[in-house]
Automatic annotation (TrEMBL):
Name listed for the protein in its UniProt record: Ribonuclease PH
Record carries keyword Protein biosynthesis: no
EC number per UniProt: 2.7.7.56
Function noted in UniProt: Phosphorolytic 3'-5' exoribonuclease that plays an important role in tRNA 3'-end maturation. Removes nucleotide residues following the 3'-CCA terminus of tRNAs; can also add nucleotides to the ends of RNA molecules by using nucleoside diphosphates as substrates, but this may not be physiologically important. Probably plays a role in initiation of 16S rRNA degradation (leading to ribosome degradation) during starvation.
Gene Ontology biological process terms from the UniProt entry: rRNA 3'-end processing; rRNA catabolic process; tRNA processing
GO terms, molecular function: 3'-5'-RNA exonuclease activity; tRNA binding; tRNA nucleotidyltransferase activity
Subunit structure and binding partners: Homohexameric ring arranged as a trimer of dimers.
PANTHER family in UniProt: EXOSOME COMPLEX COMPONENT, EXOSOME COMPLEX COMPONENT RRP41
Organism: Mangrovicoccus algicola
Length: 236
């Protein structure tokens, strides 16, 4: 039995509320169990300097955790400087979401996603990717409604979920007690069509077999289908 009482293949409850901020071109608050992330999308009418004159757009991300998102207060990174963990996560979010975007259709502009963790209970990077996609979708809708972009830049849904091996069993959507004790921990990013974008797997306390990897992939596919359904419901 998992600490939360969930079955091995059960997700935590997922809700996505859109339009939660006044000024951002796209925004949502995603809640995956006790993990809550505010995602906002900002449209910039110029691309990064390295893409100037190429006709290509860009999607990038910034990620951060509020001081009391966790059990004890963390100093703000604006004061102490960005950690390697933060840099790695925001690069992952940007890579993941660019995989679902036609950068030619977007044109020479940049979308910046800000993913701010209000409350953390495991899987914050996965929630940021899943919610970030919704904010991005809303920003694209604004561009299309205004006639600035004539072809939809969104190629497919992008969602992410964690899977791992806890107490010798493969499980879906790890919360903090499981994540902190998992023998194997992984993050899976998939498209709505089920194609892989990125897989991060590591042996935290025990190695894992190819068969176990396949089982975790199956769980991730199921979890991402649930998340894509939540994205669709939020935008309906």
């Amino acid at each position: 039995m998992r600490p939360s009482g969930r079955q091995l293949g059960d997700m935590r409850p997922v809700t996505i509320e859109t339009g939660v901020t006044r000024h951002a071109e796209g925004s949502c608050l995603i809640k995956v169990g006790g993990t809550h992330v505010l995602c906002t999308a900002t449209i910039e009418d110029r691309p990064p300097h390295f893409l100037k004159g190429t006709g290509l757009g860009w999607v990038t991300a910034e990620y951060g955790m509020l001081p009391r998102a966790t059990h004890s207060r963390m100093p703000r990174e604006a004061k102490k400087g960005q950690s390697g963990r933060t840099q790695e996560i925001q690069r992952l979010i940007g890579r993941a979401l660019r995989a679902g975007v036609d950068r030619v259709a977007l044109g020479e502009r940049q979308i910046v996603l800000d993913c701010d963790v209000i409350q953390a209970d495991g899987g914050t990077r996965c929630a940021s990717i899943t919610g970030g996609w919704v904010a991005l979708r809303l920003a694209f809708d604004k561009l299309m409604k205004a006639g600035i972009v004539t072809s939809d830049p969104m190629l497919d849904h992008i969602a992410a979920v964690s899977c791992g091996i806890y107490a010798g069993q493969p499980i879906l959507d790890l919360d903090y007690p499981e994540d902190s004790e998992a023998g194997v921990d992984g993050n899976f990013v998939l498209t709505g069509a089920g194609r892989l974008v990125e897989v991060q797997m590591s042996a935290e306390g025990a190695t894992f077999s190819r068969d176990q990897m396949s089982t975790l992939m199956d769980l991730a596919e199921t979890g991402c289908q649930t998340l894509v359904a939540a994205q669709k419901a939020a935008l309906a």
